[in-house]
Prior knowledge:
The complex is a heterodimer. By secondary structure, chain A is mainly α. Chain A has 9 helices and no strands.
Amino acid sequence: MTADRDFVTFYQANHGRLVVQLFAVTGDLQDAEDVVQEAFARAYLRWGRLSAYDLPAAWVRRVAFNLALQGLRRARRLLSVHDRLDAAAQPALAAEQLEFADALRRLPPRHRQVLALRYLADLSVEEIARELRLPVGTIKSRLARARKVLAAQLDGREEAPA
Amino acid sequence: VTASDDDIRRRFADLEEALLPQVHAADPVAVQLRGRRLRIRRALVVGAAAMLLVAVFAVVKGASLIDYGGVVEPISHAPPPTPTPPSTLPPATTATTKAPTSTTEAPTSTTEAPTSTTQALRGFRFSVAPRTARPGQPVTLSGSGCAAGSHVNFSWVPADVTPASVGELPPTTARSDGTYQTTWRLEPGFRPVRIAITASCAQPKASATAILTISR
């Protein structure tokens, strides 16, 4: 029962922020909530082991990212980009926030992922590299490229993503 | 153009601030329930996989007609032999009990005929020694259960290749006690492969197979 209480506390403390991080990747609030919930369910499945981790939230985030990226790949096969953008559930956002969310959606998923980890999860480049199991140099170049494309999107210029 | 770190950070912070109140958090109990369902599903999948493995293993073991130990019983689809009546029973008793049902038992007697042949064939044995040999090395093919002076033919096929090409070996003749033995020197050009060697006895008609592994 203590383990269950611990899990509920962990869930309540991390759920909201993880959904926002996943929204940056999926571009759809409902999808983000679904993948985060599924990731928490999988965490509960192995909570005995996970609760001993330093950062169990990082495990949940990684699972949720994987689910989201798998979902995006499936969705890409089924829908064109425009169909997908139209179908994305739009949360109530101010004009500037909507413009930013749209610009994010136009980035490749791997760019959205590093931006979410950097600016929403507040991870350092080294921590992102560890979490994604990629070299630090790859993360640095991916971040730089993502920032450049995002800036171009916000300026109203189309920049081809790498 | 590269958006500054601070500018992007500010925009992300704004987005987070706007989104957080809109996030719908499912009841943790529902999440735990989903976790328990996943646990049950995983246990079912693991159980089903284990059962499938056991079933495949049983089928493979049951379907194998070849004893990889090198000595095999002859292959026969005849029914198992019926137990012989106790010797204490007088023959007259058997005759009187069987007489009224002779018409119904007629087919039984015909099906029992191959059984006796099988029983005779059960004495036929064949083995290869050693079970693993290198090209150029001699192997001994031996066995028992042939009629004295009967020809024993040998052939081999690659055990793991389909379709298999058949190789013939020189025949031999069974000794007066029904045993037979010959030596086969493996050609130096043999590739490492497992081969199934079959010995066939002309009298009584019987055959058996043993596996020889040719190593490097």
